[in-house]
């Protein structure tokens, strides 16, 4: 935790507990925090008049230098969502697979950033319709986690919310623009291979999925044949990894005539290395792009299995072969 840096957004009429509780709790864990303002003022007042001074403005920083964002509630989100620099930080942080935490009315900023489509979200019940109309699934529960988005309904949920925030960093995705983590996999010939030997010198799109037995996988894995062919024509490869045994994968692949390889990670070590271990030791649905030099260029959770509809996926795929 000592090397982590978190942005906490600040604007007028912020909810005091939802700002100061996370800030102080993160400092206890050795996390560097920055209060990020919109630039509209040098000092902001909370709903109860408690002042907070921004340390930087949203337009002066980049998401690459931080590991996540926390957005307190109150009336502040109604101001925050009006600033393009705030929205850009949220979009980029989300696309990089980093933490997005929002409390109370905070998810309204995520709505403006258009990152909740297909996501399970909670928040103040007053924004339920806004969440649904933006394509999210409103969950009437105190704290909800969906991939790298953590949301909570209000101040009373801060203890559980912050446990989830801290827990997120015990299993976080590798940083973009860094070498991908090494891992061992079983291939269709039942041989143990290094992931690096599969993607060496080749641009690759790497998919993690939960299990062949899941309803989403039954359909999505077949649909990826077209995507795999497109990536192959560009000079890259598409591959998919799950914790299923290679025998199950091989039978499934042959029966449905998949045009790309499936790899088995029965130990779960590669799944953990990429920070996508989910419930029951299964992998979460997530996609990564690795350039021909072995550098991670894109990562995103895709719980619905629809890779091509993810924010930035097509744009990043187009540039993947230029590195």
Automatic annotation (TrEMBL):
Sorted alphabetically, the Gene Ontology BP terms of this entry are: proteolysis
**Source organism superkingdom:** Bacteria
Q: Which residues form the Thioredoxin domain?
A: 174-322
Keywords in alphabetical order, please: Glycosidase, Hydrolase, Protease
Q: Which EC numbers does the record give?
A: 3.2.-.-
Q: Which InterPro entries match?
A: AhpC/TSA (IPR000866), C56_PfpI-like (IPR006286), Class_I_gatase-like (IPR029062), DJ-1/PfpI (IPR002818), Thioredoxin-like_sf (IPR036249), Thioredoxin_domain (IPR013766)
Report a single Gene Ontology molecular function.
Answer: oxidoreductase activity
Q: Give the family from UniProt.
A: Belongs to the peptidase C56 family.
| Name of the protein in question | Putative cysteine protease YraA
Q: Which organism is it from?
A: Candidatus Atribacter allofermentans
Provide the gene name from the record.
Answer: yraA
